[in-house]
Amino acid sequence: MSKEKVYFPNLNGIRFFAALLVIIHHIEQYKDIHELPSYWDKIPFIEIIGRLGVTLFFVLSGFLITYLLLSEEKVFGAISIKKFYVRRILRIWPLYFLIVILALFILPHIPIFTLPGYSKAVIYTHLFLKILFYVVFLPNLVFAKFGVIPYAAHTWSIGTEEQFYLVWPVLIKFFHKYRMTVMFTIIFGYLFIYGLLLSHVTDGLSHRDVILRFWQHFNIDCMAIGGIFAILLFRKDKLLKLFMNNYLFYFTLVFVFTLILRGKYVPTKTVAGFVIDINNETYAVLFGILILNFAVNNKIKISLENALFTYLGNISYGLYMYHPISIILAITIATAAHIHTNWFVYPLSIGLTILLAGLSYKYFESYFLRFKTKFSNIISGMDVKKKEI
C-alpha cells in the first residue's frame, strides 16, 4: 500500500527556536546556580522563555499530531492506534530512557555534574518511587512531588507529551463528529480544574500542592489549541480566511516578540473566589496563529525553510534533552579557563548541545527511527524530505 506524504514547511525552524528558548533560559539559570554573573532574576524575559518554549512545542505537537491522524483517517479509512503508539515509542522512548539513566545512575558519580545542593544523597532519596514514576512516564509527577532531579528535571514535558499521545488517537478516532467539541472541552475543563486548585475551595484537599504543581505542567489544553488549528485547516474551514491573513500574521509575530522580550505574563484574575490563569493559553493561541501561517500561508515573506534550520529542527528533541549536560560542560570549561563572558559561554553551550544532539541522532536515535516508517501510513516531516532527496 502506498503511503501518503504530508510536509509543512518552516516547522523545523520553529522547533529549533522553541528549543533555543529553553536553552537560553537554562544557561542563565545554571550560571546563577554556579554563582557566575547572570541575568537570572534580573530580566523577566529570561524567566518566561523556558516555559514558553515548551508551550510552543506543545502547540506544535497538537497541530501536527491532530492533522496527521485526520489525514490517516481520510486516506485509509481508519486510524491505527497501535501503529501510532509504536511510532511514538520509537521516537521518544530510547532517548528519554537514556537521559533518565544518565541522570540517576551515571552523572551523580561524576563530580563536575554535581550541582550545589543536589548530592547523590539528595538524588537517591525515594529512589524506588522516582524510578517507578520515570518508567511509567510520570516525570512530571517526579518534578511535582520530589522537585528537581538534575539533568532529568526537564523531562517533565516529555511526560506531558506521552500522556497526550496516550489519549489523543483515541479521542480523534472515537469522537468523529464531536472533535472540535472535545478540543474546547479539554481547554475549559483544564482551566476549570486549575482554577479550583488555585482557589480556597481545595484548601483541604490531600496532597493539594503536589496535584497543583502537576496540573500546572500538564498543559494538554495547549495541545488542544494546536489541535483546533489543525481541524480548521483539515476541514478548510471558512475561519481560515481570518487566521491566514498576512496582516494578522505580522501583527501577531510582532506582538508575540514584544510580549516575550518585555517578559510579559498575562495577569491572574480572581472572579467570585475563582482563580483564572490563562497565560500559557494566551500564548498558545498566538503561537497557533503563527504555526498555521508558517505551515500553509505561502504569501508571507518570512521563511525558516533552509538546510540549517531543517537540520536543527530535525535534531531538536536531542537539543532539548542534552542541553543541561552541555551547559554544565561549557560552564566547567569556562571556569577552568577563567572566561565567563557570554560571548564564550553561549556559543560553547549551544555548540556542545548541537554536537551531542547531532551525534545522538546519527548514531543512536536513527537506529530506532529507521523502523518508524514501517508503522506509518502517513509519511511526514523529515521522512518526506528524505524520500525526495
Topology:
Blueprint lengths: L3 E3 L4 H23 L10 H33 L4 H26 L13 H4 L3 H9 L3 H8 L9 H19 L4 H20 L9 H10 L2 H16 L4 H4 L2 H16 L7 E3 L2 E3 L2 H18 L10 H8 L1 H22 L4 H28 L8 E3 L1 H7 L1
Parallel strand pairs: 1-4
Antiparallel strand pairs: 2-3
Helix pairs in contact: 1-2, 1-14, 1-15, 1-16, 2-7, 2-10, 2-13, 3-7, 3-16, 5-6, 6-7, 6-9, 8-9, 8-10, 10-13, 12-13, 15-16
How would you characterize the overall build of this protein?
- It is a single chain.
- The protein is built from 17 helices and four strands.
- Strand 2 and strand 3 (274-276) form a beta hairpin.
- By secondary structure, it is mainly alpha-helical.
- Helix 6 (139-146) crosses helix 7 and helix 10 runs parallel beside helix 13.
- It is globular, with a radius of gyration of 21 Å.
Could you tell me the number of beta strands? 4
The secondary-structure class comes to: mainly alpha
Overall pLDDT score = 94
**Rg over CA atoms:** 21 Å
User: Count of helices?
Assistant: 17
Q: How would a textbook summarize the main sheet?
A: 2 strands, parallel
Distance, first to last CA: 21 Å
Q: Could you name the ranges where pLDDT drops below 50 across 5 or more consecutive residues?
A: none
Helix content: 55-70%
Give the overall form.
globular
The proportion of residues in beta strands is under 5%
User: How are the strands of the largest sheet arranged?
Assistant: 1-4
The string of secondary-structure elements, in order, is EHHHHHHHHHHHHEEHHHHEH
